[in-house]
Amino acid sequence: MQHPAATQRIGITAVGSHLPARRLTSQQLQDEITAGTRLALPERMLEKATGIRTRRFAADGEYASTLATGAARRALAARGLDPRDIDLLLFASATRDICEPATAHIVQTELGTRAHAWTSATPATASSTASTWPAR
C-alpha cells in the first residue's frame, strides 16, 4: 500500500502580483535628469539604452512586505483560499524591509497565517517574489 503523501502533488496553484502605484516613464526620468543637470540628452536615450519604458516606485511607507502581502492576497483570492490554508510562505527578493524580523515574518503577520515563513534575500533570488503554497 502506498503512503498517502506519495500521491499528493506539489506545485504553484496561483500567482498574484502587486505593483506600486507610482509610475514613471523613461522619458519623464530623462526630462528630470535634463532639467536637473542641464545636459542635452538624445531623444528617448534612456529607453533605447535600457529597453525600459516605465518604472514603478514604492511610495513612502510602502515596502517589500507591502507588495508581497498584496501579491499573496491576490493569489489567495484567485484560488478562493484563506491565509490559514498556506503551509509555507517563502519571500525571495534582493531587498527586504529591515534586517529583523525577516520580511517573510512581516508578510506572515499581515496575512494572518501561521504557515512556516522563510526569507531568501540573496542576489540570486532577485527576480523571485513572495510565494505561497496552500495545504492540500
Textual characterization of the structure:
- Mean pLDDT is about 85; it is low at about 125-135.
- Helix 3 (about 65-80) packs across helix 4 (about 105-110).
- This protein starts with about 20 loop residues before the first strand and ends with a strand.
- It is elongated.
- About 30% of the residues lie in helices and about 20% in strands.
- With about 140 residues, it is of the alpha+beta class.
Instruction: Provide the succession of SSEs.
Output: EHHEHEHEE
Chain-averaged pLDDT: 85
Shape descriptor reads elongated
Q: Alpha-carbon distance between the termini?
A: 20 Å
Structural class: alpha+beta
State the helicity in percent bands: 25-40%
Q: Spatial order of the strands in the main sheet?
A: 4-3-5
Q: In DSSP terms, counting alpha (H) and pi (I) runs of 4 or more, how many helices? A: 4
Unreliable stretches covering 5 or more consecutive residues? 125-133
Quote the beta fraction.
15-25%
Main sheet attributes: strand count, strand direction, barrel closure: 3 strands, mixed
Total beta strand runs: 5
Radius of gyration: 20 Å
Considering the chains and any ligands shown, give keywords for the structure.
136 residues; alpha+beta; two-stranded antiparallel sheet; 4 helices; 32% helix
